[in-house]
Amino acid sequence: MTQSHLQRVTRSDVAREAGTSVAVVSYVINNGPRPVAEATRQRVLQAIEKTGYRPNGIARALASGSTQTYGLVAPDISNPFIASMAHALQREAFADGKVLLLGDAGDNSGRERELINNMLHRQVDGLIYTSVDRHPHIGLIQQSGTPCVMLDRVDPGLNVSVIQVDEQLAAWQATRHLISHGYREIGIICGPREMLNTQDRIRGWQRALEEAALSINPAWIFATNYTRAGGYEATKRMLRGSVPRALFATNELQALGCLRALAEQGLGVPQDVALVCFNATEESAYNVPSLTAVRQPVDKMARAAIDMLKSWDGEVRRVEFDFYLRVGESCGCQGYEVRPEEG
């Protein structure tokens, strides 16, 4: 390959090919500020195509004050629910003419802060953010003046825009569904106890039991990671003691790990242990048995997040979406039918 092919094509190269000035090339690329005769404009466009010129995005960003990018900082992209949200956000950002930069914190708060700094240094036009433990680095973002939308419930005192569902209410509804089947011994596989979302989901589970005058057995609270391995390990621990008749798993991955551990011991779902979960994706519909699960309207939430950034005026907004319980077979219900994604 020759040296000329290794060098970046510049506007000067385009101007030379088109037989015009660099300023005229700039007017064509930027559609102004001065008009260009149509014949000259066509020569410049043909020269751009022939030379393979690509505008310098960084330079254009500095000139326009916009990088045409949004940033997404998420706790763990390997989580199917978070991946489905990222996919929906990417689609909505693209429709808005933006590129979505993805930062995966790997469930590490320190790494989360580094990713936020990296996004801010890249001068993203807006940041969409779900914190690892709901103790977000909001001050860092607000100091930069970058528009930000949180995809989680946070302390109202943080003064940040939020898109969310009521996780405590969702946990209550999932547990109430188990109670409606007549189950009286109901345990919970939850996330790490120090995480705020875990605390919300435990409170919802507790509230449902208390309202039904059912006992809360501390030995049936199995804290673990929000992973398949976590659900598997928690269920193995459960099987070493007394086994509740039903379980609420606080995310889909934990429920899948639970199913594996129960199957290894020859226990059927829902025959021996009924199961419902939170934050499910389409994967729950195709599992055997299909999982009864709380679903969030991911597409609508993604659309709202991008709209917030697009129309940003500095005003704090909090939008709460309705969740829904998609009934499967794991709770004991019958006649389940696989349906397309509901957005």
Tell me about this structure.
Residues 9-64 form the HTH lacI-type domain. Keywords: DNA-binding, Transcription, Transcription regulation. The protein is of the alpha/beta class. It folds into 3 domains: 11-55, lambda repressor-like DNA-binding domains (434 Repressor (Amino-terminal Domain)); 68-165 and 298-323, Response regulator (Rossmann fold), CATH 3.40.50.2300; 167-296, Rossmann fold (3-Layer(aba) Sandwich), CATH 3.40.50. It is 44% helix and 14% strand. The two termini are 50 Å apart. Residues 1-6 and 337-343 have low confidence and may be disordered.
Question: In summary, what is this structure?
Answer:
The chain is of the alpha/beta class.
